[in-house]
Design goal:
By secondary structure, the chain is of the alpha+beta class. The protein has two helices and ten strands, in the order E-E-E-E-E-E-E-E-E-E-H-H. The strands form two sheets. It has a five-stranded mixed beta sheet with strand order 2-1-9-8-5, with no helix packed on it.
Amino acid sequence: MAQIHLEVVTPSGPVVSEDVDVVTAPGTGGEFGVLANHAPFLTTIKPGTLSYKKDRDTTYLMVSGGFVEVSNNRATFLVESSEFGTAIDVERALKAKERAERRLAQVAQGDEHINRIRAEAALHRAMARIQTAHKTKL
């Protein structure tokens, strides 16, 4: 089977760099998949689970917002942060989710000291971590 080269890069450096069979990612327009010889495109990524298959193994990776470029049998993801599902601390992610939900409740009650956009982003990241950890354990 033909493969595509996957690169996942954060500001801290590269996270993944390998040839894989298929990549599935959370685009802002919906989840999408990439196989070898895919048509070129550029799109934005939302927080969620990026998965890739190599041979019969599937790896799950939480990615935060960013961009992906697919071109010349290469998928390059530039994301704010990334974490392998096996490395996610679910308890910590659940606490982060609860904190974000409390902050959003404060915003809904008119608290102007809470930044709604930051609280929503924290909630999305926490939920992406929880979902990725659960997919990894399936």
